[in-house]
Amino acid sequence: MLNQKHKWLAVLMLIAISVFAAGCMNNNPNDNNDTNGTNGTNNVQQQGTRMQQIQNQPRRDNDNTGDRVEIADKAAEKIVRIKGVKQANVLITRRNAYVAAAVDADRMGANQGDITPELEKEIADKVRATDPSIQKVYVSTNPEFFDRVNQYVADVGQGKPISGFFQQFNEMIQRIFPNAR
């Protein structure tokens, strides 16, 4: 009888240790152990409203864009309905939106490459109307930014690999929107 009690006690101890060990295995808040072999790669996922998400590993919590970029087609559709806007694409990161736009000359501001404050506000309002969580909207007609964002949107739409885009995007944001923090 004593031997049988020891066996049950040993089995219970093994179960308790197994549960304890299994519970501690996922305690990795920084996702530093990438055991599935995807470290440094991009995953593109289709969402319900045709918003593509790009998750880039590893995380970089101290940059202004976060670790996700979404293509906001609905916001872009609303923006091109504005008089004088020929084309637009919108990328969303965390609570920021970056708009690459082509506009008519009469909607440009006093400085080359700038747009009128009224148009900038109108564009920002359209973006926030589609996603109320957006806090800051950055609008650019810079040809480099416009071309790069358009190429990115086209590549994602065609299912092409987008490796390296996230780093390029962060660098471009720092250069074109230096006050974006």
TrEMBL record:
Protein's UniProt keywords contain GTP-binding: no
Compositional bias ranges of the Polar residues kind: 44-57
Residue ranges the record marks as coiled coil: none
BP terms from Gene Ontology: sporulation resulting in formation of a cellular spore
Location of region: Disordered: 29-66
Biased composition, class Low complexity, residue ranges: 29-43
InterPro entries named among the record's database cross-references: Spore_lipoprot_YhcN/YlaJ, Spore_lipoprot_YhcN/YlaJ-like
Pfam families (alphabetical): Spore_YhcN_YlaJ
Transmembrane segments: none
Domain of life: Bacteria
Endpoints of the signal sequence: 1-21
Keyword vocabulary terms for this entry: Signal
Entry annotated with the keyword Transmembrane: no
Protein name: Sporulation protein
Source organism of this protein record: Paenibacillus abyssi
Native organism taxonomy: Bacteria, Bacillati, Bacillota, Bacilli, Bacillales
